[in-house]
Structure formats: C-alpha cells, structure tokens
Design a protein that fits this description.
single chain; 114 residues; mainly beta; Thrombin, subunit H
Amino acid sequence: MPEEPAPETPRQSRRLKTLKSGRIEFNGIFSTIDVTIKDMSETGVKLKLSTIFVVPQTFQLLILHTNTGSSERRNCEIRWQRGDLVGARFIDASEIAPDSPASTATRRDPPQEG
C-alpha cells in the first residue's frame, strides 16, 4: 500500500478543511463504505473511514452536499492509507483500468424491452 507523502512534498493544489459526508463505492456500487471527507482540493481528498477497511486501488467517491441536497461522484485512486485515514487523488474515467473495482461503479439502466 502506498505510504503518505512526506510533509515536505508540495501538493498540486491547496486542500481546504471540510467535514462533508461521503461514500466510497466499488464492485458496481454493490460495495460501499461510509466516509467523512476531512479535507478536499481540486486534485484530491483526505477521507476518514467509518470502519477500518482496505480500500481498493481505484473507486468512486460519492460526495454528499447536505446544504443543497445534491451529490456528485468523482473517480479516485488511492495514494496512501493509514488505518482509517485515506488519501486519494481524483482521476479521469480514462485512467481507470477496465478490470478495476471502480470500472463498473456507475449505475446502468436496465435493458429496454423491445
């Protein structure tokens, strides 16, 4: 598992403290883990898991905006994990390997009857 970057390693963008609720989704969103988003930037997040769990290398993060009732999903790649804390960077869908747990994370509509 990747280690947390050394403190002197500069970040690509400044992280802002936040205490939003979220959910890690993988295995076609059949597997989920509730999280608290401790801080977030344009390029990544720091998460606190509701329980200690080995997070998959790639996953989708559902970010809940409780003040507006809206939500958004972001594709993520784990950068480090230490106990119940996880650092992840946001990635484009094109960066997700076809066989990764996050590759089937989006909901699919049922087939249309013809």
